Amino acid sequence: MKYVYLYMDRDQIEATSAKLKKLRFVKRVEVSYRPDLDMNFGARIGELGESEDQTDAGD
């Protein structure tokens, strides 16, 4: 399987993906959800640790 990761500005995604889908050798075009994800994992780890401490204290 051959594939390509193509990085571009968000304002170009719609037009470029439409052009790519029209190419006969392109099977699939997928847009990444990474910009929509919260990438601040450090804060999330702290939240998980605090919730575990609270459940342990209740026992």
Question: How many DSSP helices?
Answer: 2
H/E element string? HH
Poorly predicted sequence stretches spanning 5 or more consecutive residues = none
Number of DSSP strands?
A: 0
3D shape: elongated
Strand content: under 5%
Helix content percent band: 40-55%
Description:
By secondary structure, this protein is an all-alpha fold. It is built from two helices and no strands. The chain has helices at residues 13-22, 41-58. It is elongated and about 55 Å long.
Write a brief structural summary:
The protein has 59 residues and is mainly alpha-helical.
Q: How are the elements arranged and paired?
A:
Elements lengths: L12 H10 L18 H18 L1
Features:
59 residues; mainly alpha; 2 helices; 47% helix; 0% strand; elongated
